[in-house]
Design a protein that fits this description.
single chain; 227 residues; alpha/beta; Rossmann fold; six-stranded mixed beta sheet; 7 helices; 10 strands; binds adenosine-5'-triphosphate; binds magnesium ion
């Protein structure tokens, strides 16, 4: 069974003048558990909108979305919030770390929202080990302002993984990095996802990063292009 199954999903935004702007036009796709998939396409074609729909942060106007066997449109707001906390890790172009928290505290934030709180000492050890595995063992107590751009994104990656989600959604996670850092961040993401069996869906403008995924979905004016 697919982890993600969208069929004929459409989404429009209302423009300030009241006109409707179609952004996704009948998108159907399936992504299997454990796959690493890139989403590419020109600016404004709907990549972030599609990723937000997959992440249940945005709701389609029509079509069907089944995530891990659950019909998303049938879920209550509470169920969706729980589902996101348990199953999905998000990484954005800019790290979105809390400036007042250390690297370690930032990584621990998503664990505070879980209904069944994991053992604090154990989860702290896991967070520290994960940070160490991405080369930040010496920076656990560093605040975001004291870290480099690449280091901040590595903290964001670890934060996305801390609850052991089945799905990692990354929207241009390497967009603000130089080529070397972009390369190593993508490698890190792929490695961590493969080791944990997590599915990775990554929006990117870098053909070299997309080529490292198992598969590439090409979006153009709200439609997926056939391979
Ligand atoms: N909340 C919103 N309200 C109105 N229009 C929106 C909203 N979000 C996105 N749009 C519009 O929908 C279209 C698709 O936006 P989206 O952010 O999905 O594109 P994208 O492919 O991610 O682009 P980029 O590569 O620049 O990030 C754009 O024309 C955008 O202006
Ligand atoms: Mg975008």
């Amino acid at each position: 069974m697919s982890l993600i199954a969208l069929s004929d999903v459409s989404k429009s935004y209302r423009e300030p003048g009241g006109a409707s702007l179609p952004v996704l036009r009948g998108v159907s796709l399936e992504i299997a558990a454990g796959e690493a998939v890139a989403i590419v396409g020109p600016s404004g074609c709907g990549k972030s909108t599609l990723l937000n729909v997959i992440g249940t942060l945005d709701t389609p106007d029509s079509g069907r979305y089944v995530l891990d066997g659950e019909e998303v449109s049938q879920c209550s707001a509470e169920r969706l919030a729980a589902l996101r906390g348990e199953k999905i890790g998000f990484i954005f172009q800019l790290h979105h770390l809390m400036p007042q928290c250390t690297a370690l505290e930032n990584v621990l934030l998503p664990t505070l929202a879980l209904a069944a709180r994991p053992d604090a000492a154990r989860v702290r050890t896991r967070a520290a080990e994960l940070l160490e595995s991405v080369g930040l063992g010496g920076r656990l107590n560093g605040k975001p302002a004291e870290l480099s751009g690449g280091e901040r994104q590595r903290v964001a990656v670890v934060r996305a993984l801390i609850n052991e989600p089945r799905l990692i959604l990354a929207d241009e996670p390497t967009g603000a990095l130089d080529e070397h850092n972009a390369e190593s961040l993508t490698g890190l993401l792929l490695d961590l996802c493969r080791r944990s069996g997590a599915t990775l869906v990554m929006v990117t403008h870098h053909p070299a990063q997309a080529a490292r995924m198992d598969r590439t979905l090409r979006l153009h004016e709200g439609r997926l292009l056939k391979d």
